[in-house]
Amino acid sequence: MMKEATQPGITLNVKAPQFILTDIFDREINLESYTGKKVFIGFFRHAGCPFCNLRVHALKKRHAELKEKGLEMIFFFESGSRLLKSSMFHQEVSPIPLIADPERIWYQTYGIEQSMAKSMKSHLTSFIQTAIKAKMAGVPIHAMADGESITTMPAEFLLDENQIIRKIHYSNGLTDRMSMEHLIDFAEAT
């Protein structure tokens, strides 16, 4: 179920908060340089979260197709750069920028929710199935480290060619994301 809503600090139909950051691959990622392209920005939890790593895995598999349709992607994780770089899975996310934000500065800027209730509900109702899927897909699953939070809820944003936020999806649960069909439709829309 998609939740169309806003959190404090972010609204639809306004220019996305701009950033110039260095990703874990030591590349400068300047959001302004994406002007003229549609952009998916995904905010994920920690490096060992099977829910998020399955989503990253699915997006990574469709990266070439989505890029060909005109949709660029930028991923944020609340884990530190060192932890993300130590994971072969996360290293292989390249060429998609992967930005470490352990201080959660950009999580706060984009209004990413903290919810113990939603996180716990997801863990109680779907953790085992998700962990099995993660294991079968070969994506990392491990305990939190370096001050990561169990309460962080994922969020996804779609920006148009002028960097106007056209879609915001704050997850109601850890498996609640924009559908791949929705991403394709957005990429193909003129």
TrEMBL record:
<feature type="domain" description="Thioredoxin">
    <location>
        <begin position="10"/>
        <end position="190"/>
    </location>
</feature>
<dbReference type="InterPro" id="IPR036249">
    <property type="entry name" value="Thioredoxin-like_sf"/>
</dbReference>
<dbReference type="InterPro" id="IPR000866">
    <property type="entry name" value="AhpC/TSA"/>
</dbReference>
<dbReference type="GO" id="GO:0016209">
    <property type="term" value="F:antioxidant activity"/>
</dbReference>
<dbReference type="InterPro" id="IPR013766">
    <property type="entry name" value="Thioredoxin_domain"/>
</dbReference>
<protein>
    <submittedName>
        <fullName>Redoxin domain-containing protein</fullName>
    </submittedName>
</protein>
<dbReference type="Pfam" id="PF00578">
    <property type="entry name" value="AhpC-TSA"/>
</dbReference>
<dbReference type="GO" id="GO:0016491">
    <property type="term" value="F:oxidoreductase activity"/>
</dbReference>
